[in-house]
Amino acid sequence: MTGVIDALEIHGWIQRADVEGDRRGVSLALTDDGIAVLDQAEEAMAAWLKAVLDQAGPAAAAGVVTAMATLAAGLEAARKAPEAAEAPAPPAAPAAPAAPKAKAVAR
Predict the structure, then answer these.
(1) DSSP for residue 38
(2) Residues 6+ apart with CB under 8 A from 66
(3) Do 8 and 34 meet the contact criterion of CB atoms below 8 Å apart?
(4) Strand, helix or coil for residue 81
(5) CA–CA separation, 5 vs 19, rounded Å?
(6) Span 45-102, pLDDT tens digits
(7) Cα–Cα distance, 64 to 56 (Å, whole number)
C-alpha cells in the first residue's frame, strides 16, 4: 500500500499529512491535480462502459443496469447497518455429471 501511495504522491495527485496525536497516523488528501485525474478516469470509464453496453444491446444493457442498482442498494444497506447485513449463502455447487455407463462388447 505504501508503494501505491508513494507513486500517487510523486505524481502530485495526493498529499500526506501527519495526524496530530497519533505518531503512526497519516491522512491523505487529493490535490487539485489528483481531482482532475480522477475526473478524467471517471469520464473514460463511463465512456467505455457505455460502449460495452451499446454493443450488448438494449435488453442486456437493461439487465446490467438493474443488477448494478440491486448491488448498489445492497451495499448501501450493508454500509448503513453492517451488523444487520448478512452475506448470502454461496450458490450450491452444480451436480457432478453421471459417469458414462459401460457398454457390453461382444467378442
Answers:
(1) H
(2) none
(3) yes
(4) coil
(5) 16
(6) 999 988 998 998 999 989 988 999 999 998 988 888 766 656 666 666 666 565 555 5
(7) 10
Closest residue by Cα to residue 30 from 8, 52, 51: 8
State the Cα torsion 92-94-95-101 to the nearest 10°.
Answer: -170
How many Å apart are CA 82 and CA 40, to the nearest integer?
A: 32
Is residue 48 within a helix (H) or strand (E), and if so which, with residue range?
helix 32-56
Residue 15 and residue 22 in contact, taking contact as beta carbons nearer than 8 Å: no
Contacts of 33 (CB under 8 A, 6+ apart): 11, 12, 13
